Amino acid sequence: MASPPPPSNAEAERVAKVLARAGVCSRRDAEKLIAEGRVKLNGVVLDTPAVKVGPGDKLSVDGKPVRAAEPA
Questions:
Q1: Which is it for the CA torsion 42, 64, 47, 26, positive or negative?
Q2: Where exactly are the structural domains of the chain?
Q3: Is the pLDDT confidence value at 72 over 60?
Q4: How many other CB atoms are there within 10 angstroms of residue 64's CB atom?
Q5: Phi and psi angles of residue 34, each rounded to the nearest 5 degrees, phi first
Q6: Residue 4 — pLDDT band, cuts 50, 70, 90?
Q7: Vertex 57 angle, CA 44 and 36, to 5°
Q8: CA–centroid distance for 20 within its chain
Q9: Which residues pair with 44 in a beta bridge?
Q10: Are 19 and 45 in contact (CB under 8 A)?
Q11: Percent helix, strand and coil across the chain, each rounded to 5?
Q12: Are the C-beta atoms of 52 and 15 separated by less than 8 Å?
């Protein structure tokens, strides 16, 4: 499985943090979802949680889009 190129935006956050903030799951559970091949970033299945997500990226879990939560 391939990893998408990292975003160049300084506002990028790790994918597990984005999933947790969006209320999808905990960071630990996000790592499990990624290991199971259930998370896609811009249409590419992720194989590592060490990927950063930028504001314009499209993230999905089990084919369902994930909307990023607003930073607190």
A1: positive
A2: 15-51
A3: no
A4: 7
A5: -65, -45
A6: low
A7: 35
A8: 9
A9: 41
A10: no
A11: 20, 20, 55
A12: yes
Residue 53 scores a pLDDT above 70: yes
Strands 13-14 and 39-41: unpaired
Three-state SS at 14: strand
Buried b (16+ CB within 10 A) or exposed e, 22-34: eebeeeeebbebb
Give the whole-angstrom CA distance, residue 23 versus residue 48: 20
The rounded distance, in Å, linking the Cα atoms of 25 and 43 is: 20
Structure tokens at 19: 């999933």
| Its pTM surpasses 0.85 | no
Q: How far apart are alpha carbons 39 and 4 in whole angstroms? A: 12
Count of alpha carbons within 13 angstroms of residue 1, beta-carbon side: 16
Residue at token pair 């249409």? 43
Say how far apart CA 51 and CA 60 lie, in whole Å.
Answer: 14
